[in-house]
Design brief:
Elements: H1 16-46, H2 57-75, H3 89-101
Length: 119
């Protein structure tokens, strides 16, 4: 992430750690909102579709979510919420804007794959 919080100039009068932490929180919040909206859109679109096995596409999406959650818990068994931390408000806003511009693959999802070379 070349444009991440470490690459952002910290405004005068703000602690770098607090500002960057706030930036990251804003970025993650916005990207998370966008991913959740993409998931809702995919569920709506897949509601009536069925797969080659006859299962509904929505069921396949739900199964995928369960697999991701299980793998996350296996990879990070001791993950927990941290304690209180210091934030800087304008860092959050800058991170939110960057999260709005972040490439989460939305333009590529559902796009027809490129043809094979020589075809």
């Amino acid at each position: 992430m070349n444009s991440g919080p470490a690459a952002q100039p910290v405004p005068l009068g703000h602690g770098a750690r607090a500002w960057r932490r706030s930036w990251l929180l804003g970025f993650v919040g916005r990207v998370g909102d966008r991913v959740e909206q993409a998931e809702r859109d995919a569920h709506e679109e897949a509601g009536a579709e069925t797969t080659v096995t006859g299962r509904g596409a929505a069921v396949v999406l739900a199964d995928r979510r369960a697999v991701v959650e299980r793998n996350y818990r296996l990879a990070y068994p001791r993950c927990r919420n941290g304690g209180p931390t210091t934030m800087a408000g304008d860092g959050y806003g800058s991170g939110w804007v960057a999260g709005s511009r972040a490439d989460i693959g939305g333009r590529r999802i559902g796009r027809a794959a490129a043809g094979a070379i020589g075809v």
